[in-house]
Backbone:
């Protein structure tokens, strides 16, 4: 195939709904996800490059650089997990739930080859939904407590930052006891 023909045929399949794409890219959540995705791509490529240079060019493995890149990867993962509304603890639990479904007796090649993707998805959906729902309700609670603090400050009940922090702690403790 001539390259000119390829260019025409390939571009024919490009999604070109700029209005919808622009609308999606204007959402803060999507901007943060794109930032995390591009950052993860960059940092994981830099991490991999250390081994490419070691294997193919005979360079020593630079462990200081590897630690730096892992830290950068963690930073971008933190953005993505924050946008998703889960903690690192949640992600760890979700991952272990999936691994238990995939490898019920520990790793076996036969389980790795014959994965039950429907069961894995079911486990992931249950584990993720529970944690995201729990975090949603916790975040709603935090927002309501913050609204109480703001109102108390507005009406003069709380007049200092330390007073606001004490008031927030009292409201939080009281509500948790209900």
Residues:
């Amino acid at each position: 195939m001539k390259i000119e023909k390829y260019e025409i045929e390939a571009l024919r399949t490009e999604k070109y709904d700029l209005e919808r794409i622009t609308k999606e890219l204007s959402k803060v959540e999507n901007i943060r996800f794109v930032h995390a995705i591009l950052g993860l791509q960059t940092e994981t490529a830099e991490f991999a490059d250390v081994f490419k240079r070691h294997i193919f060019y005979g360079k020593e493995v630079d462990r200081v650089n590897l630690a730096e890149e892992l830290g950068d990867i963690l930073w971008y993962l933190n953005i993505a997990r924050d946008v998703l509304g889960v903690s690192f603890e949640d992600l760890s639990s979700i991952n272990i739930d999936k691994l238990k479904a995939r490898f019920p007796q520990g790793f076996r090649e036969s389980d790795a080859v014959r994965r039950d993707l429907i069961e894995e998805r079911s486990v992931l959906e249950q584990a993720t939904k529970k944690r995201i729902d729990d975090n949603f309700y916790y975040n709603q609670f935090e927002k309501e407590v913050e609204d109480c603090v703001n109102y108390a400050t507005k009406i003069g009940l709380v007049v200092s930052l330390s007073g606001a922090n004490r008031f927030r702690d009292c409201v939080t403790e009281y509500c948790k006891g209900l």
Q: What stands out?
A: The CA atoms of residues 51 and 57 lie 9 Å apart. The radius of gyration is 24 Å. The chain has a mean pLDDT of 85. Helices lie at 3-11, 18-25, 28-57, 63-84, 88-102, 109-113, 117-154, 161-176.
